[in-house]
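Priority: medium. Attachment 1 of 2:
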């Protein structure tokens, strides 16, 4: 297979797995942070989780296909003189991915939940909810990216490239 096609195939797989990871992690985080009134049935939470997951997946997958993360990482490596396969490099690359993905995904999910799922009598002020969600989701996403991106890359990269 031609090298360009192989790179696109790898990029597609990484984008797909990252979208699953980020969407599941951030949707679950948002759902667990929610302050549910007792009269709202549990099934509403499950449906809310699934709707947020679908929205988040679509956004995350689109980001993964549009933003050339390997090029971003290469530019970061040049700018900060990063050495391959070091903790510092992994942290900086993870932080860059987090800064690209998480604010957009979290903003979309919080806005969606606030305006479509929270009953009018139970709506907290939007801005504090938004900021709190951004901070918590950013921390959760950083951990997810730090832990799971190396695993995703090992699964997706051909054996001769992953070592």
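Attachment 2 of 2:
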């Amino acid at each position: 297979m031609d090298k360009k096609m192989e790179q696109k195939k790898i990029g597609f797989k990484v984008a797909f797995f990252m979208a699953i990871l980020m969407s599941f992690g951030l949707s679950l985080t948002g759902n667990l942070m929610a302050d549910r009134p007792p009269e709202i049935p549990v099934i509403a939470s499950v449906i809310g989780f699934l709707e947020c997951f679908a929205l988040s997946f679509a956004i995350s997958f689109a980001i993964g296909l549009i933003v050339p993360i390997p090029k971003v990482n290469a530019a970061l490596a040049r700018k900060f003189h990063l050495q391959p396969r070091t903790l510092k490099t992994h942290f900086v690359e993870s932080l860059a991915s987090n800064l690209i993905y998480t604010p957009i995904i979290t903003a979309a999910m919080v806005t969606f939940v606030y305006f479509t799922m929270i009953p009018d009598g139970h709506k907290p002020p939007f801005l504090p909810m938004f900021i709190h969600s951004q901070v918590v989701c950013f921390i959760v996403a950083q951990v997810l990216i730090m832990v799971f991106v190396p695993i995703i890359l090992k699964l997706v990269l051909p054996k001769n490239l992953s070592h």
